[in-house]
Amino acid sequence: MSAPIHRYLSLGAGVQSSTLLLLAARGQVPTFDAAIFADTGWEPAPVYAHLRRLEQLAAGAGIPVVRVAAGDIRRDALDPAHRFASMPLFTLGPNGERGVARRQCTGEYKIKPIKAEVRRRLGYPHPARVPAGVIAEMAIGISLDEIGRARDSDVAYMRNTFPLLDLRWRRKDCLAYLTDHGLADTPRSACVGCPFRTDAEWARLRRDDPAGWDDAIAFDAAIRHGSARANAAGQTLRGQFFLHRQRVPLDQVTLRPRTETATDVPGCGPWTCPQLDPPTQAGNDAVATPGPEVRH
Hints:
Helices cover about 30% and strands about 10% of the residues. By secondary structure, the chain is α/β, with parallel strands linked by helices. The chain has one domain: Rossmann fold. Helix 1 (about 15-25) packs across helix 6 (about 170-180) and helix 7 packs across helix 8 (about 210-220).
């Protein structure tokens, strides 16, 4: 007898994953045993509001939305006692060298807790070995215009699937579908202080979420000279960290918003986080520490 198929959705609460959840709730793609949302603890207010709406929508179709977390990314970054999972902060070296710190936050705060939840649901929490043949399908919201981000899972017990690719849908198709079903205001998923924000998004945060904007400004100032843990240990940052690519304090940035098309700005989902320039060493453990092991 073949093992039952376990189907889950990686829910980032952005456009594509929200579309997949709605499609499943309406019976237009196979349903999911659960939609798993990895909460960094620092999502914008509109994302949490949208997530609550999705939870109600999914409950009506018998799909539980499960929130998992590995901590609070903002609090952890400023805690001298906590290991800093490096964010892709923009760096400015002592001689004007420009770079980007390595990105560990996605693996630590999104992929790792999702894998832990899948293992738990399969009945084999880490460090138990998942037997061969026990597999969970993980649906990921990658649309046709982002096909280059579609990759196989790096663990044997999880098989990535891409229903939007099967439908040949682009992001604009997802937006149209959400609009048709009353979800036109679905936000882009990304942390409040995500360095991947465009100027249009920073301007929107400043306009629509003043508390979030002030929070990002305070965080930007707090990480200027490196992580709290590295500083407490006397590991001086050779340069400075910034949230904005202009590499000036966020409250001094001259924002130059431009009109964004439907395919311009993908969200920062667990397996769909955008890429930036290659990282450069800046002399602080936030940059120099190897990335977290997320294969569990």
